[in-house]
Fold this protein.
Amino acid sequence: MAGFLRSSMPAPVVPRQVKLIPIDGQKWTGVCAVKGLSEGSIFGVDYNNPKFPKLGIESLRLSELLGRVPPGHFASPQRPSFHLLMLFTAGRGDHFLDFRRVRCKAGTLVHASPGQVQQFVLGQKLEADILLFTSEFIFPAFSAADGAAFGALIDDVVPEDVTDLGPDALESVVSVMTAIKRAYHQADGSKLSAVILQHLLYAMLLTIAGCCVKSDAPSMMDSHRSTFRRFRRAVDAQFAQTRTVEYYAQAVGCSTKSLRRVCMMACGSSPKALIEQRLILEAKRLLAHTGLTVEAIAAELGFSEPTNFVKFFRRHGGMRPLDFRAKFPGVRLG
């Protein structure tokens, strides 16, 4: 399973040299999840199931995960290239998702999506059921048209990435989680066992969506939903290289007017605003989780001058970059 770089995170963050260490089947990659970001940025972790190398899902307990490596290896943030779905079952404590502190207890559901920065806090009495799975494992055999609709489910499965499930919702999710755990531990690496797990995972996503997604949320045509998802993925991949709406409209095969209409329908924001939000998100991640200087972060994110980045961050982030770094409530390690 995935490991964390071993380092401390004072505020402001102090740069240090880090050696990449393979941990129990999971590999650190020097290539970040975001195209164009350097190896001095947040390191990513590739999915690699040690039990079934070709199976795109793994089921395990939080205690099992933390017990696989020496203390300290989980002390720093990581950027997984796969989905991490955690249902906390006992105890109380914290988890970090990007630069946010998440208060966890029994019934808290956390979803870290590919490319998102997340971090465990060591020394806590927390337990959770964990599912690690790749995006490709979610019914990859469906047709392109069906896949557009099914694939959108994981994008909206846990609103705001975190939710506290009520008693009825928790009972439903636990029931499906139990079935997944049983099927995983009975799996034999065959195609049949993989298909069973695919269907159970999809049942899990549907169950969570039924509990979390608002029934009065505006509906979208499949074609519009597909366009919006392709736009968001293009922005995730290219925001450090270009911030022009025209580029992304061409990348997803529509006019700027159509792209604006789709974005407004999907989330009430313009394409330009979404691109800027993604840039600010990455800037905050780099400020919170790395020791890169403001000048280095500006260069990472495609700004020709650091002063332009500082102005952009103050306009969209509400404060200066170093003020944000100083206020980040990160994990303090002894």
User: Anything to note?
Assistant: Residues 222-327 form a domain with the Arc Repressor Mutant, subunit A fold (CATH 1.10.10.60). The chain has two domains: 27-212, 222-327. The CA atoms of residues 106 and 218 lie 31 Å apart. Residues 191-212 form the longest helix (22 residues).
